[in-house]
Amino acid sequence: MRNLHTRPLYQKDATRSKQKVLDIVASLSDKGRMPFATKALAAMRNRLRHECGQFLKNQKEMDELSDQYNRYVDLQKDTAIREKRILTLFSLLGKKGMMGLEKDPNIAELKEREFFLDPEFVEDLPLWKIIREYITAVGKAPINDIFAFLSEIQDSTSRQGIESALKYHDDVFKVSKGANDTFVSLK
Fold first, then answer.
1. Cα–Cα separations (whole angstroms), residue 139 to 76, 148, 184, 187
2. Which of 60, 76, 147, 180 is the most exposed place for a label (fewest CB within 10 A)?
3. In this structure, are strands 182-186 and 173-177 parallel, antiparallel, or unpaired?
């Protein structure tokens, strides 16, 4: 029969293992290498307070800066649109059309920053973009006026080429027929 005060063998081994772990933990904590659980919990609580405080400060600062940020994003978009427009007009005007504009302080500053490309290396604009810039400048124009303008700035232009560009880019141009001529405006 078994003695009631005697433990089974597997329980003795488990008790010895637990005791070894407790001895190791105690020796480490005595040497200062392992903080007590209460110190660790206190450190975690302090860290949580700090993180919550920083989170709220960040949220407040982000709220305060949101107007400036949104304004910055709007300015970036506007600047990108204007840059495209400037380069298109620069390409359209070329060296000949730019004569006399070098004295303008805004153009001079952009030229100083090397914003403009050398007109020799600017690629030719598609006909529809040239027409779009012309219509933007004048509002509404008969095809004959567009033809006259294009003849002045390009070597070869045909009325058929103009009509083809207008037809192909009908999402950009509004074409209306008058008594004597066909008029073009932007949509």
1. 27, 16, 9, 11
2. 180
3. antiparallel
Architecture of domain 124-187: Orthogonal Bundle (1.10)
> Tens digits of per-residue pLDDT, 78-88?
988 988 888 77
**Do the beta carbons of residue 181 and residue 162 sit within 8 Å?**
no
Q: How far apart are CA 104 and CA 141, in angstroms?
A: 29
153 near 124, Cβ under 8 Å?
no
pTM for this entry: 0.56
Nearest to 102 by CA among 111, 92, 89: 111
Residues 6+ apart with CB under 8 A from 53: none
